[in-house]
Amino acid sequence: MSEDNTSSATERRPDWAAFIIAVFLFAIAGVMAWDALHLKTIAQYDRIGPATVPQVVAFGLFCLGIWTAFEAWRGDFPERDRQEVAPVIWIVAGLAGQMLLLRVAGFSIATGILFALTARGFGKRKLWISLPLGIVLSFVVWAIFSQLLQLTLPAGPLEHLFF
């Protein structure tokens, strides 16, 4: 008969990524609790005031942080798939491009570039289709918000060409 060596193979180590998430949960809970303690109360006789809900949410985040740290220590989280970096880089490049080009090129062109690069990140390889489509869709959104709703969005050469 063979020995059972599966118990050592199935034993999981602590999940360090989950510990980092637990630390962020604790940090957010601490900031919310600190901010809730510094809110001015409207009336001193009420037990429920403007700080009540932030305190409850901070307590909930603190409890989630404890739970996440406990589960991370036990290694109970399922194993994650390997992260593909290339799609994330395409999407972040699209966001950076939009932020850099928004004032210079206007809403339609900057958001069209964001649309095209995000589509590329999700697997659409034909940028020559997604870029003009993104610009047209962004121009329609700009026209609706700017002309119909009278909201201000950055206008560039394309927007000035039509309006």
List the main descriptive attributes of the protein structure presented here:
flat; 2 domains; mainly alpha; DUF1468; transmembrane; membrane; Putative tricarboxylic transport membrane protein; transmembrane helix; 7 helices
Q: Quaternary status of these chains? A: single chain
Q: Sketch the topology as an H/E string, one letter per element.
A: HHHHHHH
- Report the strand count: 0
User: Please, how many domains?
Assistant: 2
Low-pLDDT residue intervals, each spanning 5 or more residues: none
What is the number of helical segments per DSSP (H or I, 4+ residues)? Answer: 7
Q: End-to-end distance, in Å?
A: 83 Å
Portion of residues in beta strands equals under 5%
Instruction: Report the average pLDDT across residues.
Output: 86
Secondary structure: helix percent = 55-70%
**Structural class computed from helices and strand pairing:** mainly alpha
Over all CA atoms, what is the radius of gyration? 25 Å
The main β sheet shows up as: none
Shape: flat
Task: Write up this protein.
The chain is mainly α and 163 residues long. The protein folds into two domains: 16-74; 85-149, no CATH class. Helix content is 70%, strand content 0%. α2 runs antiparallel to α3 (52-74), α4 packs antiparallel against α5 (107-121) and α5 crosses α6 (127-148). It is flat.
Helix-strand blueprint:
Layout: H1 6-10, H2 16-37, H3 52-74, H4 85-105, H5 107-121, H6 127-148, H7 157-162
How would you briefly describe this protein structure?
The chain has helices at about 5-10, 15-35, 50-75, 85-105, 105-120, 125-150, 155-160. By secondary structure, the protein is mainly alpha-helical.
